[in-house]
Amino acid sequence: MATLYDQFGREIQVGRQPETREIAVAAIRDRWSNYPSGGLTPQRLAVIFKEADAGDVSRQAELFEEMEEKDTHLFSELQTRKNAVHGLDYEITPYSESAEDKKIRDFVADCIFNLESFDDALLDMLDAIGKGYSCLKNSWDTSGGKAALISRIEWIHAKKAIFYERGANMWAKSYEYPRILTEAEPINGEMLPPFTLVYHRYKARSGYDTRAGVLRVCAWMFLFKNYAFKDWVAFAETFGMPLRLGKYSPGATKEDKDALYAAIRSLGVDAAGIISQNTEIEFVEAVKNAGSNNIYESLVNICDKQVSKAILGQTATTEGTPGKLGNEDAQDRVRHDLIKADSESVGKTIRHQIIRPLVGWNFGWDKPLPWFNLLYEKPEDLESLMKVYKGASDIGQPISQEHVSARFKIPLPQKGETALKPSAPAAGPGEGSDVLAAKTRPGRGDLPEARVVVARADQIASGGDIDAADLISDRLSAEAQETTDKFIAAIRILVEDPGVGDLADLRDRIIGLWGDLSPADLGALIARATAVAEMAGISDIHDETGV
């Protein structure tokens, strides 16, 4: 037998096979309840909580169950919280890429995917969100003779767990882990065999599990909301219909008065009646002291909002304000944090209390466990991510094909497969093309060695590269300086001539000067630069395409 530790940190002894005896946890009388919400008062609620703090969670568990049944808003919010996780896909991945770990993963995945009660068990685990803990039972099957499999996972009512020894004195140590009430031990309960009990905690805060559930926080709002509803219904019953006032003449007999009173009462139900001609019925409109400031409705709404904050962490998804889109987005991120926390907590419980015994009894207790992950992350925008990778590549960041293949889940081409090649974009008239080629220019004089590239018209050469167009323009500027200096000198003489009267006179003189200047040398220089640029482009296209 191997010595291991269970989910509570206790040292346990496990045999070669799991225990398969039937443990009667559920009974018909479990359907009965003390219905502690009936006539609930602040004093009674405090007593129920004190009992749970002492380890007797029976009445607290029954109260929490009734709260979900009676309060529609609370039920809706809890369902929203649970379904946000229950509706997620999940995956089982090997501990490593070794053949043995993949074999273990395949076995575990086959066991879980074929377990019909697994999805229900996942929802039952999420019951811990409200109550602080949830209990389930693994039923093992070894009839195959070789493998130890889980045949089903059964839910155990939260009131079947006890956290103290009944009948002990006040100094007795409370249990740090639950004992389960069974038919064999209906009073003090019993510790179930190793890896039979699945115990999921809702670790929202530090402290005992019996005090951690969100329904513990919501119980006070449930109580105050019930008071508000009862008073509201009584108010509606009293003031919801108009006052029916009967008037009788001074000479009316007792029989006339009784008939009038009976007619008034029947009008409230039948809306019909008969009276004598000498009597009169007047309808007085109900007192509208509630108005737009209905104290009962306000109290109910406040309680509902506090419940939403406790369960969802916000109120925007249930009490959204029109025109507050930015606020709604921020609140939705808080909701995602709760989904993340719940998913990781459930995944940890499944891995250590369901997958661990499956691996231990079938492959050995020293084998690493596969990973169980609920896929709570939102789908990634691969198009935006591709732009990031392309931008990183354009600035010279080295990126391996293997990394890109794994990141985008695109397999690399195998031997014998035809790999796709990027098509060269055709440049239209007046359009530039992508960087076609790059040549290494040897160092010369004060110019260091660098790559000379032909860049697209709307781009610039990356750092460390020299654009061929920059070289041509620099050469053109240097050789044209002598000619342009002559032009500038002639214009300067006109500007400094004191005989020039005004700007209009200066303009006329510059126009007249143009006939004395010869632009032939400058035109020839520009023509040579254009020819060099065209030849550089043709050469780069030839180097790139071989055409």
Share in helix: 40-55%
Question: What gyration radius follows from the Cα positions, in whole Å?
Answer: 42 Å
Uncertain parts: 324-331, 427-447
What is the subunit organization of this protein? Answer: single chain
Tell me what portion of residues adopts beta-strand conformation.
Answer: 5-15%
Q: Structural class per helix/strand content? A: alpha+beta
Main sheet record: 3 strands, antiparallel
What topology, given as strand order, has the largest sheet? Answer: 5-4-8
What's the end-to-end separation, in Å? Answer: 77 Å
Secondary structure elements and pairings:
Blueprint: E1 2-5, E2 11-14, H1 42-53, H2 58-70, H3 72-86, E3 90-93, H4 99-113, H5 118-125, H6 128-131, E4 133-141, E5 149-156, E6 161-162, E7 179-180, E8 197-201, H7 214-239, E9 243-247, H8 254-267, E10 280-284, H9 295-312, H10 325-363, E11 371-374, H11 382-394, H12 401-408, E12 438-441, E13 450-453, E14 465-467, H13 468-496, H14 503-513, H15 520-545
Parallel strand pairs: 13-14
Antiparallel strand pairs: 1-2, 3-11, 4-5, 4-8, 6-7, 9-10, 12-13
